[in-house]
Design a protein that fits this description.
The chain is an alpha/beta fold and 281 residues long. 33% of the residues lie in helices and 23% in strands. The protein is built from eleven helices and nine strands. The chain has a nine-stranded mixed β-sheet, sandwiched between helices. A hairpin with a 2-residue loop joins strand 1 (5-12) and strand 2. The longest helix is centred in the middle third of the chain and has 13 residues, at 121-133. 52% of the residues are buried.
């Protein structure tokens, strides 16, 4: 059992917003995460929704900017989000750029040295953090969903598919939907995974979907702003849309005029995403 250090607690919409730090077994370094626990948890375990944040974010970003607690409280859902990478791993170059290394773990388990020493964000999320949320905290392991934004949208779509029995619902805001096609993904995959195309394919949501058959029959929800400056070069929602069509996967891909890539966009449609997961959990 992980020994959790509670950093802070704040009353919030009848529940509590907490921030934790702990020594991570998966990462081999201290990690931080945050959790919103609704009032309904006083009476037993509640559905749990994991949020994966985007490049440069921390465990605070979503909880401060997303506006999700109000809607999670209404539906009795626990929210969990973690930092976006290990911190202080001591890897040469980990702080040289904003889209690789610190703050840019890409929710995968690194294969290449020196990143393979600590950069195991997939194992951290699906094994360690999931275990903490559903044992030491009041999340129900049988009612878990996952969602995220940008790099975290990539993480949600990929981890949901790679760990299908574990996650009953999945959605995303402006996800990096085909990372093998875009500069962000190519940089991350080459650095963390090496040059093996098969290892890249295992972390590409569109390629995973193409090779499957309707993994989420209750549907997937994706929101994308059309004024998003990263849309054309980095995100490729059309690739995921085509892959879902090929796989017979129901997908609601909503394109919104005038909305960009940031949390003003995310918070606008947060209520819809929480309701989407609540209906499935």
């Amino acid at each position: 059992m992980a020994e959790l250090e509670q950093v802070s607690e704040h009353r919030c919409f009848g529940g509590v917003q907490r921030f934790y730090r702990h020594e991570s077994i998966a990462i081999g370094l201290p990690m931080r995460f945050s959790v919103f626990i609704p009032a309904q948890a006083e009476f037993g375990r509640v559905p749990v929704l994991f949020y994966l944040a985007g490049l440069t974010c921390t465990e605070e970003t979503f909880m401060i900017k997303g506006g999700a607690q109000r809607f999670a409280a209404q539906h009795g859902i626990m929210l969990v989000t973690c930092d976006t990478s290990p911190r202080g791993a001591g890897v040469p170059g980990e702080d040289d750029s904003w889209d690789f290394g610190t703050g840019a773990g890409f929710y995968l388990d690194a294969l290449q040295e020196p990143w393979a020493g600590h950069y195991f964000m997939e194992s951290y999320v699906v094994d360690e953090l999931f275990g903490i949320a559903t044992s030491q905290l009041p999340g129900d392991p049988l009612r878990a969903g996952i969602f995220g934004h940008s790099m975290g949208g990539h993480g949600a779509l990929v981890l949901a598919q790679r760990h299908r029995p574990q996650f009953k619902s999945v959605s995303a805001f402006a996800p990096i939907a085909a990372p093998t096609k875009c500069p962000w993904g190519q940089k991350a995959f080459a650095g963390y995974l090496g040059e093996d195309a098969e290892s890249w394919a295992q972390y590409d949501a569109s390629l995973l979907m193409e090779a499957s058959s309707c993994p989420f029959p209750d549907g997937i929800l994706v929101d994308q702003g059309l004024a998003d400056g990263f849309l054309a070069e980095q995100l490729y929602p059309e690739a995921f849309e085509a892959a879902c069509a090929k796989a017979g996967q129901p997908l609601t891909l909503r394109r919104h005029e005038g909305y960009d890539h940031g949390y003003y966009f995310i918070s606008t449609f947060m209520e819809d995403h929480i309701a989407f997961h609540a209906a499935r959990l």
